[in-house]
Amino acid sequence: MEKPLAILFVDIADSTQLYEQIGNMRASALTRKMLFHLRLAIEVNGGTVIKTLGDGLLAAFPTADDAAWASLSMIDSAPVFGLRLRVGIHYGAVVERAEDLYGDACNVAARVEHIAKPGEILATDAFVQQLTPRMQARSKPLSNVSVRGKSAPIRIHELRPTIPGEDTTVDSTTLGISLPKPGGEGMLVLRITYRGHTFTANRLYPRLTVGREESSDVRILSRQTSRQHAVIDFSRESFILTDHSTNGSFVRNGNAHAVALRRDSTKLSGSGLIGFGAEPFEADQDHVASFTCDIA
């Protein structure tokens, strides 16, 4: 049975040159990290990874807005890995069979991804028409392109991370940054405290990088902590901690046992301690930061 879905193709741009520049082993490891992050971006925004395609992924989403947020998250986070992505999105009817998708919509989305430039999100007019008005404002109509099997060219749009005239403080769209809710509701805020310094994340400042290197937002001065240890992202009214380290991250809420993460993710809620590289026992340990998540 056919059903309408938002179909997204994403691919790592210039991957052939990457393998030539840094060697097979390093390029392969970096690609795996990027694909893991892309999979996370898809899943936390309500999508499903259908399959891996070389250095890219095919994903499906029930709504166009979910696919849009995921794609914006991908493009925004790729520079953290020193990479660029190409993304193509279409909305149309597909057939699910044997954990795969079939139909004209998949062919169109693949064609759109193929013509996207590195760092660019291209979407069809059919997809843009399914977006909410707020998200439609992020689209810019481009030219018509020919697609194999289509008798007439289709209109292509670029999906941009900002709305023209929008305050630049809300430009970052990491892992599905949520728009302000009506009714004047409070803002969900995460506070990370380390050595007397407090770092804040919310929907306006949706990402914190954590690690030993000086460029980290939260610099942890411990040999147990990796240089680029973890990231914390605001997504769909939640804060998601993703570990990228050698020794792992350990999250303890209250007096509960710590949850160990190794190249995995978890949701932060309430309050507790995070051990970056080893289990947390006291807040004043070199590898430990405390966190609180509440409404401001």
Largest sheet: 8 strands, mixed
Alpha-carbon distance between the two ends: 46 Å
Based on CA inertia axes, which overall geometry fits? elongated
Q: SS-based structural class?
A: alpha+beta
By CATH, the architecture of the largest domain is named 2-Layer Sandwich
What's the helix count? Answer: 6
Which consecutive residue ranges, at least 5 long each, have pLDDT under 50?
166-185
Radius of gyration: 20 Å
Assign the CATH topology of the largest domain.
Alpha-Beta Plaits
Secondary structure: helix percent: 10-25%
Number of domains: 2
CATH homologous superfamily grouping of the largest domain: Nucleotide cyclase, GGDEF domain
Q: What string, H for helix and E for strand, traces the elements in order?
A: EHHEEHEEHEHHEEEEEEEEEEEEE
Strand content: 35-45%
Beta-strand segment tally? 19
CATH class of the largest domain: Alpha Beta
What is the average per-residue confidence, as pLDDT, rounded to a whole number?
A: 85
Task: Describe this entry's structure for a reader.
With 296 residues, the protein is of the alpha+beta class. It has 2 domains: 2-159, Alpha-Beta Plaits (2-Layer Sandwich), CATH 3.30.70; 188-295, Tumour Suppressor Smad4 (Sandwich), CATH 2.60.200.20. Helices cover 21% and strands 39% of the residues. The chain contains 6 helices and 19 strands. The chain has helices spanning 15-22, 24-44, 64-77, 104-115, 125-128, 133-136; strands spanning 2-12, 48-53, 56-61, 85-97, 100-102, 120-124, 139-145, 154-159, 188-194, 197-201, 207-211, 218-219, 230-235, 238-243, 249-253, 259-261, 265-268, 271-276, 288-295. Strands 1, 2, 3, 4, 5, 6, 7 and 8 form an 8-stranded mixed β-sheet that branches. A hairpin with a 2-residue loop joins strand 13 and strand 14. Helix 1 (15-22) crosses helix 2 (24-44) and helix 2 (24-44) packs antiparallel against helix 3 (64-77). The longest helix is centred in the first third of the chain and has 21 residues, at 24-44. It starts with a strand and ends with a strand.
